[in-house]
C-alpha cells in the first residue's frame, strides 16, 4: 500500500507542475510494463475536488509542524497531499499564501483506462478503490501547518494590536456601539496564552443577569473597556478573569 500511496501522490504533483501544468487535466497515454493506459482525471463530485481547483500540490509529509501539539492523521489508501489554491487578483479573505486543504489522490483502473481522483477526505473519509470501500489516508494537520508562522511573531502581534487602535469608529460591525462612543474609552492589555478578544458591552452589571460579553478570535489580545480608564495608560483593574500588564 505504501508504494501505491507514494506513486499516486508523486504522479499528481508531476502532472500538475511539469511543463507549467500543460499536461494537467488532459487525456494522456501512459505505458508501463508493456501495458498502455489512457489516463484522465475524475471530474468534480460530492466528495471529489475539481481538477482545476488547486494550482499546486505539496506532499503532506514535507510540511513541518512547528506549532502543532498533535498531528491529526488517518491511515488508509491514497497519496496524502496539501492542495493550494491561489488566484490573481486574490480572492476575498484568502491568505497571502493561498487557500490550502487536505487532498487524497487515488488511482483506479478499468481495463486500459486509468482514473486519477482528487478526493476530499474531510468530507468523506472512505472511498471505493479497486472494488472495495477503504479508508482514505489523510493528514489534516498539514494544510494548517502550511501557513508557517513568521519568525518575528511577537512583532507581528504588536503591529496588529496597533492596527486595531487605528480602526475608524464607523466599524460598528466589529465593536459594540458603547465601545466606539467617545465617552467610553477603552483599555488594551496583553494576556499571553489567550487567543481571543473580549469586548464588554456594558459598564454596569444589571440586576438579575450576567454581564453580556462578546468574544472575537483575533490577534491573541484581550480588549476590555471601562469607563474609568483611558486607553493604554491606566493600570489594569484586577477582577475575575483579568491579568497581564498594561501596554504603554
Order of helices and strands: HEEEEEEEEEEHHHEEEE
Question: Judging from the principal axes of the Cα atoms, what is the shape?
Answer: elongated
Largest sheet: 6 strands, mixed
Q: Helical element count? A: 4
Give the strand tally: 14
Q: What is the percentage of strand-forming residues?
A: 25-35%
Radius of gyration: 25 Å
Query: Mean pLDDT, nearest integer?
Result: 75
Tally of domains: 2
Class derived from helix and strand content? alpha+beta
**Poorly predicted runs:** 171-248
N- to C-terminal distance: 59 Å
Strand order of the largest sheet: 1-2-7-6-5-3
Helix content: 10-25%
What would a concise description of this structure say?
With 248 residues, the chain is α+β, with helices and mostly antiparallel strands.
Give an overview of the whole structure.
The protein has 248 residues and is an alpha+beta fold. The protein has helices at residues 2-17, 142-145, 153-165, 177-180; strands spanning 28-32, 35-41, 56-59, 73-74, 79-85, 99-110, 113-119, 126-129, 132-135, 138-139, 187-189, 197-200, 213-216, 222-224. It has two domains: 2-145, no CATH class; 153-224, no CATH class. It has four helices and 14 strands. The strands form five sheets. The chain has a six-stranded mixed sheet with strand order 1-2-7-6-5-3. The chain has a two-stranded antiparallel ribbon with strand order 4-10.
Amino acid at each position: 500500500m505504501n508504494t501505491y500511496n507514494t506513486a499516486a501522490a508523486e504522479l499528481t504533483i508531476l502532472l500538475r507542475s511539469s511543463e507549467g501544468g500543460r499536461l494537467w487535466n488532459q487525456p494522456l497515454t501512459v505505458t508501463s510494463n508493456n501495458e498502455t493506459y489512457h489516463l484522465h482525471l475524475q471530474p468534480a463530485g460530492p466528495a471529489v475536488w475539481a481538477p482545476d481547483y488547486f494550482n499546486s500540490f505539496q506532499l503532506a509529509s514535507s510540511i513541518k509542524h512547528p506549532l502543532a501539539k498533535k498531528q491529526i492523521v488517518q491511515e488508509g489508501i491514497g497519496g496524502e497531499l496539501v492542495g493550494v489554491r491561489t488566484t490573481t487578483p486574490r480572492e476575498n479573505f484568502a491568505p497571502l499564501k493561498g487557500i490550502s486543504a487536505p487532498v487524497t489522490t487515488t488511482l483506479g483502473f478499468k481495463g486500459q483506462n486509468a482514473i486519477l481522483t482528487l478526493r476530499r477526505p474531510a468530507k468523506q473519509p472512505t472511498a471505493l478503490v479497486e472494488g472495495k470501500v477503504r479508508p482514505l489516508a489523510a493528514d489534516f494537520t498539514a494544510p494548517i501547518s502550511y501557513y508557517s508562522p513568521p519568525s518575528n511573531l511577537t512583532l507581528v502581534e504588536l503591529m496588529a494590536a496597533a492596527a486595531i487602535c487605528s480602526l475608524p469608529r464607523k466599524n460598528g460591525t466589529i465593536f459594540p456601539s458603547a465601545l466606539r462612543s467617545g465617552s467610553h474609552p477603552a483599555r488594551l492589555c496583553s494576556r499571553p496564552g489567550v487567543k481571543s478578544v473580549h469586548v464588554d458591552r456594558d459598564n454596569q452589571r444589571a440586576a438579575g443577569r450576567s454581564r453580556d460579553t462578546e468574544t472575537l478570535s483575533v490577534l491573541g489580545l484581550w480588549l476590555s473597556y471601562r469607563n474609568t480608564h483611558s486607553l493604554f495608560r491606566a493600570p489594569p483593574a484586577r477582577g475575575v478573569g483579568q491579568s497581564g500588564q498594561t501596554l504603554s
